[in-house]
Amino acid sequence: MALEHAILVSLLEQPGSGYELARRFDRSIGRFWTATHQQIYRVLKRMEADGWVTAEEIDQDGRPDKRSYSVATPGRSVLTTWLREPVQPESVRHELAVKIRGAAFDDAAGRAALIAEVERYRADHETTLHRYRTGEQRDFPDPGALDTGQRLQHVVLRGGIAYEQMVLAWLDDVLDTLHGLGR
């Protein structure tokens, strides 16, 4: 997937400025696709030049004008074509998993350092899971009252929650195994 596709989806959900789009990436889209603010602005500029999005200047009292972007017909066509293409399963490259396998060739001090790294990694995933659950409570308080777009957003978030839960369970297993090696 290209950043362009994530931007098109977001703008179809709700037109907005580059700043607003970057905030959406920070808040929700970033659950499955990350981008820096600079990347978003650079891609928006290219998409506007290619005719995929249009921008409207909006006056703001006491602040610089802002540009609000929306999807143009060519952008919608590009997205429709992409949505209908098959998706290949992602190949996983997991540096931590390789380090865990490599622990068999390290000494006790190396395994202790690995345990600390796994614990740090686990804490990061625990924080992410908490952020997802907080977002779910905030954004989807009544799942029975969601429209089609919201239901699809919610199912993506539930996938992120399930993924984080799976990673945490695996990391707990890794820690149990590493701690058991010292016995």
From TrEMBL:
The record places domain Transcription regulator PadR C-terminal at 92-178
Transcription regulator PadR N-terminal domain mapped to chain residues: 7-80
* InterPro entries xrefs: Tscrpt_reg_PadR_C, Tscrpt_reg_PadR_N, WH-like_DNA-bd_sf, WH_DNA-bd_sf
Q: Which residues form the signal peptide?
A: none
Q: Which SUPFAM superfamilies match?
A: Winged helix' DNA-binding domain
Protein's UniProt name: PadR family transcriptional regulator
| Species the sequence originates in | Catellatospora citrea
Lineage per the UniProt record:
Bacteria, Bacillati, Actinomycetota, Actinomycetes, Micromonosporales
